[in-house]
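Quick note —
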Amino acid sequence: MLETFHIRIKKDYATAIIKDLEKMDAVELLYENSIPEWHMQVVTERLNEYKSNPSLALDFDTAIDEIENEI
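Predicted structure written out below.
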């Protein structure tokens, strides 16, 4: 019987218990990245675009002004 649970560990001793269960091969800890892969790719692309041409970047106030003018 395989079941997956998402838990939030609230006490230090609970972490130790879970680690002990992992050592006994009673549980498998699945570490998931909370940032989706597609989002990381978009950020990487935009960062590379900025590095290629930093003069096209806007400061925060200008960017907010442009967004507000589009609404």
